[in-house]
Amino acid sequence: MWILKICVHRCTNPSDIILLDFLYKVVKEVLAKREVEKIISNLKISKFSVLIDKSTDITRNKLMCVLVKYVSPNNGQVLTQLLESVSLDAKDCSASKLFESFKNLLIEKEIPITNIVGLACDNASVMTECNNSFAQYLKSEVPLLITLNCICHSSALVASKACKQLPSTCENLIRNIHSYISGSSKRCAILREFEEFFNVESNKLLKLCNTRWLILQKCVARILENWEILKNYFIVAVVEDKLQTAEIILDNLNNNKIKAYFLFLKYVLNFFNNFV
């Protein structure tokens, strides 16, 4: 549906705009409503699990995405469908408020909360903490609720804990290289010149982010792909920029032990990425 919306804004031909606008309204006002009605009627007579996750759209509005998984009473197929994206108050996303919004959604659609048998969510404390969490509020309504934490998040937490046993130099090197180069358009342009000189495909340096659980392996692999280019870049940077940060990065890039750690991380973290 959002594709149609984009097309409406980008079209210049008046007849095309009218057609796309009509199709958008048909999808939104007819097809989508009919599909939601079918989902609701199925959930009223079926046991189902809910998959809950929070998100932020491009306008910075907080949303709670509610997916449902159940066995179709019509053909016996296992279906996973979006029930609703619920708008949240960004100033208060506490467990009680999340559950209140979720429960109001079910009441509005006349879906019995007792039909829920399972909950799947990430490991955020607001969702799964022993006390005062979304899962606990739901369990008060559904005592036999089965809770399944996100295996992607769990796997990433295992990898993160294990990586803390390695020298912090590895993680610091990834962060320092990215902040040193990506923070300046001039330095990015100079790096591209090095890539062209060495006849290597230009690849954007990845930022290590705590909330993107499986990014570490990709960051490590990208640094290794550009290891020699980065060494040559920082040889010049040390002379021209005369900054201690550049000297530290160059020392790390010249350290074979650190490179060995990077090679190990690239190999072992790939298993975690493939696992999920």
From TrEMBL:
Domain of life of the native organism: Eukaryota
InterPro entries per UniProt: RNaseH-like_sf
Protein name, entry field: DUF4371 domain-containing protein
